[in-house]
Specification:
Helix content is 19%, strand content 21%. The protein has 8 helices and 18 strands.
């Protein structure tokens, strides 16, 4: 609704700073209401919303929905025969999101989205917002285990277990019994991940996360294995680039160089590359993360028919939804959630809320790259291995093998309840964002210290599948 003293003719919405085209989602100002039509404007352009365009609301008469002076959220569709722009009425939920995509070869940032609308909030959720990761943290656990000697075909038992007072559970509230590590990661089973972290040692898992470039101070509690830790999207994307890069982490690079008017370089930022894990470990993890998309929680992305790997993530009460993944040439991450950490809604998991956005970006990123392969799949690498005698990396096995089973329980070392941790300040300790407009929506995340949904002991709602 318009502020007091503002006329219909004077009002301007921040959305209108950029020219809109059919297909855009934008706010509009209602100017006239007829029984079966809603007339509004976007800048100087008139639009019309017909009765069938708001039928989903269940309200028959437009006057029961809106009145002149209301601000509505619409999706622009092809114009009517007379040239008037048509639109469908949409719901502006206020959900935020962020996306970051980098070139695996040099870390160049190919795409970055810091929020829904820069005009309303300049807080960059891709680089400044620390959010709980859910099961997108599990690759650090599995990498630590692989480096410790575990194999993708090793059997782990998905069964009830208690570590003192902490009893992890699965999203489905069931147990699958013996399964391979590959299947446990692909299906994002929580109990196996906690058992694995307990066997390797949570301190080694945390050390592994820090090696990948995570800078967050991580408490040494077993629920950390399920993502009860806050990390920025930028750090997550840089970490996931390690897997397609044979163990090398490339730092995201926003600016390559600065030149003067004569083209003389005044400053250059060379690619920053660091060896995080060895090639064998990286390729083993690559195979396991590819299984996530081949038949696991990220199976929807298999329709892209391209070499891909990745991991979903969902947190307590469905407050954060993640998907981190990669092709041979691009690593991309997506986060979806409210700044206020309120729930996205029942079953709004990483696979449902974040993965479709990731797929939309990756369709563009892989276009024209039908022949690209991961390093481990390229013929010259197989020839090199044959010539040097280096054994091929372990491949994920789907069937049980005689490999040693992992214990179904571990020493009863109960982690302190996460609710007892000191709460983090409401404003993230990050580089200052640009000043907010006078009436801008406050985008600073509120303080929250709670375990991820699949890390919480006996929650009222089921654990998230990631």
């Amino acid at each position: 609704m318009l502020e007091e003293g503002t006329t219909l003719e004077e009002y301007k919405h921040p959305d209108w700073a950029i020219k809109t085209v059919p297909g855009d989602f934008v706010h509009a100002l209602v100017t006239r209401v007829l029984p079966q039509e809603i007339h509004a404007r976007i800048g100087a352009e008139e639009i019309v919303v017909m009765a069938e365009d708001w039928r989903w609301t269940g309200v028959a008469q437009s006057a029961a929905l809106v009145k002149p002076g209301d601000i509505v959220y619409v999706h622009l569709t092809p114009a009517l025969a007379g040239g008037t722009q048509r639109a469908t009425l949409e719901q502006d939920s206020g959900v935020q999101g962020s996306l970051l995509a980098v070139d695996n070869a040099n870390g160049d940032v190919l795409a970055m989205v810091g929020g829904r609308d820069y005009a309303l909030s300049q807080f960059n959720r891709a680089t400044q917002s620390e959010r709980q990761t859910g099961s997108s943290f599990k690759p650090y656990v599995y990498t630590a285990a692989i480096e410790d000697g575990a194999k993708p075909s090793d059997i782990i038992v998905d069964s009830p277990v208690s570590f003192g007072g902490y009893s992890p559970h699965n999203y489905e509230n069931d147990f699958r019994g013996p399964m391979t590590l590959t299947n446990a990661l692909a299906e994002s089973r929580n109990v196996p991940a906690v058992k694995l972290a307990a066997r390797v040692g949570i301190h080694k898992v945390i050390e592994m996360a820090h090696r990948f470039g995570v800078t967050t101070n991580i408490p040494a509690y077993l629920p950390v294995a399920l993502g009860a830790v806050e990390i920025t999207l930028e750090e997550q994307v840089a970490s996931y680039s390690v897997f397609p890069n044979d163990g090398l982490r490339v730092k995201p690079r926003l600016v390559r160089k600065v030149s003067n008017a004569d083209g003389i370089a005044l400053w250059e930022d060379a690619p920053s590359v660091e060896q995080v894990i060895d090639q064998q470990t990286a390729r083993t993890m690559l195979g396991m993360l590819r299984a996530v998309i081949q038949y696991g929680t990220g199976a929807a992305a298999s329709q892209l028919n391209h070499p891909l790997g990745g991991k979903t993530g969902t947190t307590s009460d469905y407050t954060d939804a993640w998907f981190l993944g990669f092709s041979p040439s691009v690593t991309c991450g997506v986060w979806v959630g409210f700044d206020s950490s309120e729930p996205l809604g029942e079953k709004e998991t990483g696979a449902r809320a974040a993965l479709p956005i990731w797929m939309a970006l990756m369709r563009v990123a892989i276009a024209g790259k039908d022949d690209e392969k991961f390093l481990s799949d390229q013929p010259e690498n197989r020839i090199l291995k044959a010539a040097t005698g280096i054994p091929a990396p372990a491949r994920p096995a789907l069937a049980a093998s005689p490999a040693k089973p992992l214990p179904s329980s571990a020493p009863a070392t109960a982690p302190p309840k996460l609710a007892a941790q000191p709460a983090r300040g409401a404003s993230p300790a990050v580089k200052p964002a640009l000043p907010q407009p006078a009436k801008a929506f406050s985008a600073q995340p509120i303080a929250r210290v709670k375990p991820a949904l699949d890390a919480a002991p006996a929650p009222k709602s089921p654990a998230a599948p990631q």
